[in-house]
Amino acid sequence: MITISLCMIVRNEEEVLAQCLESVSDLCDEIIIVDTGSTDKTEKIAKEFTEHIFHFEWIDDFAAARNYAFEQATKDYILWLDADDILLPDDRQKMKDLKGSLSSDVDAVAMLYHLAFDEENKPTFSSRRHRLVKKDRHFKWHGPVHEYLEVGGHIIESDIAIKHNKTSKQTHHEQNDRNIKIYEKRLEKGEEFSPRDLFYFANELKDHARFENAIAYYAQFLQSKKGWVEDEIRACLSIAECYKHLNIEESELEALILTMKFDTPRPEVACKIGDIYKEKNDFNKAIFWYQLATTLEEPTHFNFKDESYTTWYPHIQLCYCYWQNGDEKQSYFHHCKAKEFRPNDSRVNHNELFFKEYYIK
């Protein structure tokens, strides 16, 4: 059986750290906690789970902190988590099984990362991360912010899922502001941004409602022609989102159409184009794009997956559009399809009540 070092970097995580460690502590042979400047009870909580607590002077570099944490590990494999991540019972068992069966020739294990959830706490948006890596391969983190772990060799994919439990944390402002400040300090120093930097800085600008600036940096990223195709598509989608906030509909539509330069239409793109026409009461065009979304699938290599646009969302919009077009049969059909996917959704329940009252009359 392999041995595992859990490596974490933390700062002011008293709200969530205990539940994270409780969910994995018995699965790990060593817990490494690197504190980057907590002023709350984070360190006290960490001491309840491990004596291996280290301090790292914050230098505006997440990769440096994570690499320092990895350097402290002594076991065969390193598992990394953030403080607001947890393993649910089924995934704990899967992790236990993996630990007992993993071949020593495996260099890294990619796991699911559930980031958003519906009203029944089922994941609606997920990605994949290399979560478990072999210690003696000396894999390194790169990037001061939105860092990534560069891995290679024999990599396997697991259905183990880490849940991002962000709703349990009430104080987000410090961390959110910290990211964008790191980028701005780098710009002030005259540092040249890589295509990846341009993309993630644009994301930060968008999240801070600085939409014009975000569009400019997304454009620089696309002009570099050196980004991953999925990031290029995501950049176009984000540009469209920015233009939507700015109420510039024509540019929003152009940005969505631009995604098709990089690949075939994605379900999310089709739905968002449908949304534009729906808002204009052009229901025939809206129906075309929503129907298209129901026939599309996300590529198997896609790192991020939002199931909404391939399941309930186009159907609930088709329900509305067909009704507006006077096609009651198709409207009800798509209501039933949406209900299959999200039986407890408030919008679905509203439509259910409407149809019951309508047909009784």
TrEMBL record:
Residues 5-103 form the Glycosyltransferase 2-like domain. InterPro entries: Glyco_trans_2-like, Nucleotide-diphossugar_trans, TPR-like_helical_dom_sf, TPR_rpt. It comes from the Bacteria. This is Glycosyltransferase family 2 protein. It comes from Cytobacillus stercorigallinarum.
